[in-house]
Specification:
This protein is about 85% helix and about 5% strand. With about 200 residues, it is mainly alpha-helical. Strands 1-2 form a two-stranded antiparallel sheet. Strand 1 and strand 2 form a beta hairpin. Keywords: Cell cycle, Cell division, Coiled coil, Cytoplasm, Septation.
Length: about 200
Amino acid sequence: MNVVTIKINGNEYNLKGDEREEYLHMVASYVDKKIKSIMGNNEKLSTSSAAILTALNLGDDMFKSHSLCKELSNKNESLEKHDKESIAQLEDFKKQLNHMEAYNQELYNKFKNIENGEYVKTLEQENIRIAQELQVMKESTKVCIEENRKIKVENKDMRFKLQSSKYKIIDLQNKLIEYQINLAKQRKISNPLLTRDKE
């Protein structure tokens, strides 16, 4: 467990935690800037009032980050669902494409083995039609593959943002807990009568 001496609003505090020393200093610096900003806007504020306003600001940051995280999570689920649907559609296109290619080959074989000129002409027209349909299927498959690739890239980006938001929420929760501890200490220092009453 790390023990770190930090300074918030000119007062020193000893923090204990399993987190790295750099992290504890970063949290303390964040809270110190927040409270100094609030006191700078209103010099008549007491330390305890500024501490409460700072706690409210940190709570607001935490709830907004949590809301953003939930929104990103929902969007991520939607993208994953769409991704699965696109994959299923792509598989369906591949099956249809294979079926059309097999049918086209069958017609081609018949064309080679039949000597009747009129029938051959009909088969040629049918073969052209099938080839055109086959080309349309190939183009549709390409579009589907490209859309699937884009969705995967967007899905990866959303997962990264979701993970970043989760870390931010954890960070804000830790800051809020630390700030509540500091607030309790500050109240104890500011109002020694409370301590005597408890004794």
